[in-house]
Amino acid sequence: MIKLRAGFVQLVDAAVLIAAADRGFAEAEGVNLELVREVSWSNVRDKLNLGHYEAAHMLAPLAIAESLGLDYARVPLTSLLVMNQNGNSILFGNETYAALLEHAQGDLDDPAVSGAALKKLIEARAKAGEEPLTFSMTFPFSSHNYLLRFWTAAAGIDPDEDIRLVVLPPPYMVDSLKNGHVHGFCVGAPWPSMAVEAGIGRIVHFGSDILATCSEKVLAVRSAWAAENRDSALALTRALIRSTVWCATPENRVELAHILAAPSRMNLSPDLILRALEGRLRMDANGRIRENAQYLVLSSAAARPDVRQGLWLYAQMVRWNQAEFSSSHMDAVNACLSPELFDAALCTMARKTVLDDGIGAFSGPAFDPTDIPAYLAALDPK
């Protein structure tokens, strides 16, 4: 039996990893998979980098940043598979949402309408001498950061000057909103729903409103470890693919919700988790329900690492001055999101057909991974 340890953060999108361990898919592949719950992405990153974990539930942009050396150290990582697409929400505190509503001209479910209203709200606050609005996200190298930036920039808001973006671990988001430290946040399930249940916030957008398709979390391993332990990496990948197929089956959602709700896993209400798995979220304290099958995507078709997705995330790093553009960086992104191990583990799986550019952003030019400078040049100046 191969003994492996993996870290995860208390989020619904850890489902594939948790089910692999708790429903026997790892054991069936000869893997004794021990899972450790962490509070923050920095903890997960550090323990993976230092070899305390063989694998980790990880933000896709963070895996790229580690491979590029953009964080505190350069540790090339390999993505065994994409654990999920999408899964985030943008939530505002009740008072901030009420103020946003006053400036809205149209349906706030439209990100162009909500962005325009937010710009007016920001201008009104500045005129009144009030401090900038503060929004939290989970990590500088995260889709949460890029979703907030893409949405606000499309409305003519400078996310580095007109608002404040701060980093908070996912489990701390709700308390920070409740205590008035932030006006809103972007985070994965179930934390936006927790704020709604507590009566302190209102979901403004699903992440899929901003980007139709976004590789959110990957199961990351150190590239050097994968090279030295290829058989173990392949066994773990097979277990994860089997788990993905099971998790993606609608008939299994109730059982999956109870597995995730366990005290050592998420320690939360199964009903709250089930709603996220179904893409059926309560938006506000009045009980408005919104359903969207693309809210959180767990599927075998989406599990295959997609370099195009990685290059879009890298383009955001360049856009927001986290990285320089270079061919060597693109090579590192290609290596981080290479499907080679995935394909070797269980042949080639069909890719999901999405919008033409594979990203589906609600605004701006189509993304061409072969010409990132042209894509960046076509965007409005931030």
TrEMBL record:
Tell me the Pfam families matching this sequence. NMT1_2
Q: Which domain of life is it from?
A: Bacteria
Name the InterPro entries for this protein: NrtA/CpmA_ABC-bd_dom
Main location class: membrane
Keywords attached to this entry: Cell inner membrane, Cell membrane, Membrane, Transport
| Keyword Transport in annotation | yes
Q: Where found in the cell?
A: Endomembrane system
This protein's name: CmpA/NrtA family ABC transporter substrate-binding protein
